[in-house]
Design a protein that fits this description.
The protein is of the alpha/beta class. The protein is 29% helix and 30% strand.
Length: 195
């Protein structure tokens, strides 16, 4: 069950959207929408989890901020789409898990492996809130903007038809400290999923 709490216009550097604030009884989730998506097939969709490191502190250990920027830009270019923001920092393990795995990451351990080593799930996210939002809008199927096949599986398990994926590959400068925005270098790769 998901409830719409409020909605309003959202003006961003990547275009104008309508913002919808939802509540599922535990957490708030946000959808930003451009164009008419109700009843449509292959709707361009990004399901994005909150990342304190990338979005709040402009950290250089992940490309979450760039992925969001690319998704907004792509939806604006296409004129139709939805981006869903879930409050699931640290793959839903929380900020403490991020901090406790920092030393392991500095030693070259992949983030999901670092979580496992200290006793957290590799990925504790739930995609049910995103699926509920897509059902609220009556979206027929989505083209998911992701580099993570786990998101495809997660949405599919929740009853959402994923017609294809669009990989947003961010290519940083040679020196990661020089990364500015997604505009440095961007590649879009479209894939259709065979069902």
């Amino acid at each position: 069950m998901i409830v719409l709490l409020a909605q309003g216009p959202l003006h961003t550097r990547y275009g104008d959207f309508t913002e919808y604030l939802f509540y599922d009884g535990r957490k708030e989730s946000i959808a930003i929408v451009k164009g008419e998506i109700t009843g449509k097939e292959g709707v361009l969709c990004r399901v994005h989890s909150h990342c304190t490191t990338g979005h709040v502190f402009n950290g250089i250990e992940c490309d979450c901020r760039e992925q969001m920027a690319m998704a907004q830009d792509k939806v604006d270019q296409d004129g139709t789409g939805i981006i869903i923001w879930l409050d699931q920092d640290g793959k839903a393990n929380g900020r403490m898990a991020e901090l406790l795995t920092a030393k392991l990451r500095d030693e070259g351990v992949a983030q999901t492996e670092a979580y496992a080593r200290i006793g957290f799930p590799r990925d504790a996210r739930s995609f049910e809130p995103a699926a509920a939002i897509l059902r609220y809008f009556g979206v027929g199927s989505v083209t998911l903007m992701t580099n993570n096949p786990g998101k495809v599986g997660g949405l599919t398990e929740c009853g959402i038809t994923v017609a294809g994926t669009l990989n947003l590959a961010y290519v940083p400068e040679d020196n990661p400290l020089l990364r500015k925005t997604y505009q440095d270098k961007v590649r879009y790769q479209h894939h259709t999923i065979e069902i």
